[in-house]
Amino acid sequence: MRFRAITAAAVAVALTACSNATSSLPQTASGVACTPSAGHSVDAAPHAPTAHELGLWPRRGRAMRVCGDVGSGFGRCQAWLRTDIAGTIQPNTPGGYGPSDLQTAYGLASYSAHGGGCSTVAIVDAYDDPNAASDLAVYRSRYDLPACTVADGCFTKQSFTARTNAGWAAEESLDIEMVSAICPNCKIVLVEAASASTADLSAAERYATAHARYVSNSWSGVEGTTAYDGAYDAGGVAIAAATGDRGYNATAQWPAILPSVIAVGGTSLTAIQPLAETAWSGAGSGCSKVYAKPSFQSGLKTGCSMRAQADTSADADPDTGVAAYDTFHQRGWVVLGGTSVATPIVASVFALAAKTGANDPGNLYAHSSDLNDVASGSNGGCGRPLCAAGIGWNGPTGLGTPNGIAAF
What we know:
This protein has helices spanning about 10-25, 100-105, 110-115, 130-140, 165-180, 200-210, 340-355, 360-365; strands at about 65, 75, 80, 90, 95, 120-125, 155-160, 185-195, 215, 220, 240, 255, 260-270, 275-280, 285-290, 305-310, 310-315, 320-325, 330-335.
C-alpha cells in the first residue's frame, strides 16, 4: 500500500482548487458561484473518543440488508445493518468508525478540516426520510462537526414524495452522515425520488446533477435497458454509484456499470494506522453485456471484453462498519456497512478535491498510483482479477481506496 504525507502546501493546493472552481464553473446549473465557508479548525477542542480510538472497533458480528430484493426496473439500497449492536456500546460511544477514523485512514484529515467549502454533494435515494435533518444534527454534534442545517442553507432536502420506507430512510441517514464525515464543510442536497423505480430515481438524478457537481447513488439495479442512461452523464459532474453487496454479479449492476459513472466497490477496513484493507466479500464486480470497454480501461487486464466494475472503493464490510444515527428505521445509533458506505465517501473525496474537469472515471485511471492498492481478499470464485484482489486493478476494489485527494 502507498501512503502520501499531507503537507501544508498540499492543503493550500486543495483550497486553491476550491477557489478556482468558483470562477471556472459554478456549483449549480443556475450559474450561481459558490461562496467558500470558513471551515473549522483542526486545533479545535479534543473530540469525544470514537469506538476505534477506545479499542472497541472493528469487530465481527451479525448483519442484515436494510432493503429487500426488487425486480427489474427498480433500484435497491445497498446498506447493511449490524443486528448485534444497537445504541452505544458504552456511554456516549457509538459502535463503528467515526469521521476522524475515516479521515485518518484515507489521508484526508487536513483536507476535511479546511476544504470543501465551495462544494455541494447531492445524495439520490428513494422515498421520504422525515427525520433526516434532525438525525444529521445529532450525528454532527456527537462528532464535533460544524452544524449543517436547513436554516443556515447547508442542508437542503428536495422530496418528490411524502411516502416513507424504513429501509430507505436508514440509507438516507447513512449517506448524508458519510458526506458529513468526509467533507464537513460541504453543502448537502438530499434528493428523495418518488419511488425506487428506475424512472423515478433517474428523475431525481437529473435534479441532483443540476444542483451539485458531486452526486452519490448508494443503490443499484441490474444492467439492461438503456432508456435512462442520459441521466447519469452530466458534463463536469462526478457521479458515483454502488456496485452492490452480493459479490461477483453475472449481470452487472446499473448505473455503476455506465462508462460515465464512477463504480464504487468495497473493502474491509481492518486497521487504520498503518492502513490495512482487503476486498470485502460482498463488494460487487462484473462485466457489462451492454457497454463497450471504455478508453480508460483499454489495455487493462480486467477479465472483461466490455466495461468492468469497480473503479475505486472504500470501507464497506459491516464487520468494519461505520457509526450512523437514524430514528426512522431504528432508534438512534446503529452500525451500517455495504457499498452504501463507500459510495458517499468517494463522492465526498471528489468534492474535497474540487478539480474542475476531473470528475470522471478516467481521471482515477490516470492517477491510479495515488490510490491505496488493495491486494488481497475476494468476492467470489471467478479468479483474479475479476473476483480476487491482487496488485493493480481488481473487480471488488477497482484501482484502490482514497489516499488523500491527488487521484480525485
